[in-house]
């Protein structure tokens, strides 16, 4: 009989080439190979596909038939048909499971983003409320209010001074005031005067007092 070809493009090491005719050890190695492929499928290994599983079963069957001088007993085809049916069903189930996992990952990603945005809004509202109750921030320093994109003004890439009080706002330079304004009002045109920028910044962080900056 013609030599039995080993599985091609296997994601795991294939058994050693079988004898002609195959031996009991050849069948055992084919069986172990098929079990290893099945384990990879059940573990959802990305490099193991239904094609690999089908090839592994086909190789194991050829080894078994080869031990019978390449003549399958009459009952073998009928006995193998339920296995083939189970393999097709298993392949379909695994495909559906992978699709479901992909949808679940998308849902978790959306939920994480929504939760992050909600927490950012809650934090911003809470911080602004604290600042409103702190008057000019002398005795109770202001807390840092995140920009619209949820980044913090004092962290990279902004690296701006902390606005812990009304005086800290009034102490901003023109460029710093511009950066703060753009962070809190990204869709608006930057006011020409520094005083107008500072007033807008105070409103954004919850400082209700007027500007004392000399433009």
Automatic annotation (TrEMBL):
<protein>
    <recommendedName>
        <fullName>Mug135-like C-terminal domain-containing protein</fullName>
    </recommendedName>
</protein>
<feature type="domain" description="Mug135-like C-terminal">
    <location>
        <begin position="130"/>
        <end position="208"/>
    </location>
</feature>
<keyword id="KW-0175">Coiled coil</keyword>
<feature type="region of interest" description="Disordered">
    <location>
        <begin position="1"/>
        <end position="23"/>
    </location>
</feature>
<feature type="compositionally biased region" description="Pro residues">
    <location>
        <begin position="10"/>
        <end position="21"/>
    </location>
</feature>
<feature type="coiled-coil region">
    <location>
        <begin position="87"/>
        <end position="114"/>
    </location>
</feature>
<comment type="similarity">
    <text>Belongs to the UPF0612 family.</text>
</comment>
<dbReference type="Pfam" id="PF08593">
    <property type="entry name" value="Mug135_C"/>
</dbReference>
<dbReference type="InterPro" id="IPR013902">
    <property type="entry name" value="Mug135-like_C"/>
</dbReference>
């Amino acid at each position: 009989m013609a030599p039995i070809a080993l599985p091609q493009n296997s994601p795991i090491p294939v058994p050693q080439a079988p004898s002609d005719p195959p031996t009991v050890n050849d069948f055992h190695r084919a069986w172990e190979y098929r079990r290893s492929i099945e384990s990879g499928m059940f573990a959802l290994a990305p490099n193991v596909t239904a094609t690999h599983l089908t090839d592994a079963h086909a190789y194991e069957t050829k080894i078994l038939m080869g031990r019978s001088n390449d003549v399958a007993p009459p009952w073998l085809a009928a006995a193998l048909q339920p296995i083939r049916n189970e393999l097709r069903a298993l392949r379909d189930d695994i495909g559906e499971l992978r699709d479901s996992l992909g949808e679940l990952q998308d849902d978790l990603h959306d939920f994480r983003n929504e939760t992050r945005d909600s927490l950012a809004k809650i934090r911003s509202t809470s911080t602004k409320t604290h600042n409103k109750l702190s008057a000019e921030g002398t005795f109770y320093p202001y807390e840092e209010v995140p920009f619209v994109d949820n980044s913090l003004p004092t962290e990279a890439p902004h690296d701006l001074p902390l606005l812990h009080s009304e005086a800290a706002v009034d102490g901003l330079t023109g460029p710093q005031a511009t950066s703060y304004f753009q962070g809190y009002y990204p869709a608006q045109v930057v006011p020409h005067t520094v005083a107008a920028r500072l007033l807008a910044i105070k409103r954004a962080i919850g400082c209700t007092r007027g500007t004392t900056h000399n433009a």
